[in-house]
Every structure is written in structure tokens, then in C-alpha cells.
Amino acid sequence: MFLSEAETEARLDDLRRQRAALDRAIAEHELYLDLGRRLARPGVADPVPAPVAEPARAAPPHPDPVPPASRPVTAAPVPPAAPPRAEPAAEPRPAGGGAARREGRRLIEAAEEILAAAGRPMHAAEIWERLAACGLTLPGHDPVAALNTRLWKRAQGGSVFHRLGDGVYGLAP
Fold first, then answer.
1. In a domain, 109, yes or no
2. What is the pLDDT of residues 95-108, one digit of tens each?
């Protein structure tokens, strides 16, 4: 009836793996939601006029076959959906974008300080370990890959970073 110690440890390992998988799935879904919200904000002007409000209004001439279903559905969603989406999207966009830019700049400045303090080229994983120790975060499943991409883009732009190999960066001479 009771589990042995080995069985209990095996079960705990299984549960921990499941929890890790759930944590990854949650993080992925949060990332996609955030990305969807970011992408939806600039395009809010497109969906508001584009919702098929005209065909929905054209549908009421056919309400004789289905009067209750067509009228409430078209009347309720169209008016509330258009005004609220247009107003909130206009204000949060600059604030969210500005905060993300500031956070990105802070991350890159911290990476530059870490490389300067080390006095040698470092792999993105080493840089990430030190950034994480400072309390900085990066979105996504693989923060090292995200950091590597950011450093790689800046190394191409002639900034203070110089790419020396796969994931290895130093300060430009």
C-alpha cells in the first residue's frame, strides 16, 4: 500500500520533470500572449475598421429565419469592441515600448560593464550568469540565446561589442 523510498524518489523526480515542463509551457504561453498584445497594439487601427461590421448589419435583413441569434450577436460585440480597443491601445503602446527599450539598454550596458570588468572575451552563457546574478532577466525559453542574439546584432552595428566566435564576445578595440 505504501511506496518504498526508491519508488517515492522516482515519483518525486517524475513530478519535478512535469513541473518543469509546466513551467516551460506557462512561460511560453505568457511570452506568446505578450507578443500578441505587443503586435496587436500597433495594428489596432486595422482590426477596428476591418471587423465585418457592415456584413453583420447586412445580416439583419435575414432575421426572419433566425431573429434572436443574429441580432444580439451583431449588436452587442461590435459597439463595445471598437471604442475600448482604440483608446487603451493608444496609451500603453509608448509606455510599454519605452520600458522595454530602457530595460534592453540597461541589459546591454550591464553586459558591457561585465566584459570590461573581466578584461577578457566571454561566452554569452558566462555573461548571462553574471547578468542573472545582478537580477536582470530576459524573456523566452533560452535567455542565453536571447542575449547572444542581442550581442550579435550590436556587434554588427559597430558598437562596443566585437564578436570573436560562436557566442563569444569581447569589447571592440
1. yes
2. 556 888 888 889 88
